Amino acid sequence: MENCLFCKIIEGEIPSQKVYEDDEILAFKDINPKAKVHILVIPKKHIESLKEISVEDEKLIFKMHQVLNVIAKEQGLEDYNLVVNCGKGAGQEVMHLHFHLLGNP
Ligand code: AMP
Ligand code: ZN
């Protein structure tokens, strides 16, 4: 998607500190961390927000949660917070679905 910051990160046009990548999902460190661990988990498919998911995204959304758990463990987090801003009115600034994984090991 043109003019999408996170699509540009996926394409490597904008650098990021990657912590996980597969063919469907990318995770990287948030540039302005709100906790000791603050990682963004995103689908490579451009979906604007959780409000725009469809039935065909079922497996992808589940996999994102599995990836969250793997990353949390790798980052030394026994417990974590998951924040998902859905829509501009809720504070979503980047209109490409992303899960904020937050925690303090
Ligand atoms: P949201 O307000 O939910 O849309 O969150 C967007 C997040 O993206 C914020 O926490 C920003 O700090 C983060 N962010 C913006 N630009 C970058 C970037 N180039 N690399 C990593 N994180 C970014
Ligand atoms: Zn995008």
The main β sheet shows up as: 5 strands, antiparallel
Shape: globular
Q: How many helices?
A: 2
Radius of gyration, in Å, reads 13 Å
Strand order of the largest sheet: 1-2-3-5-4
Low-confidence stretches: none
State which percent range the strand residues make up. Answer: 15-25%
Distance between the termini: 35 Å
Mean pLDDT: 98
Which structural category fits the helices and strands? Answer: alpha+beta
Helix and strand arrangement:
Layout: H1 5-11, E1 18-21, E2 25-29, E3 37-43, H2 58-74, E4 81-83, E5 99-103
Antiparallel strand pairs: 1-2, 2-3, 3-5, 4-5
Bound molecules: adenosine monophosphate and zinc ion (ZN).
Kindly describe this structure.
Helices cover about 25% and strands about 25% of the residues. The chain contains two helices and five strands. Strands 1-2-3-5-4 form a five-stranded antiparallel β-sheet, covered by helices on one side. It starts with a helix and ends with a strand. The chain binds adenosine monophosphate and zinc ion (ZN).
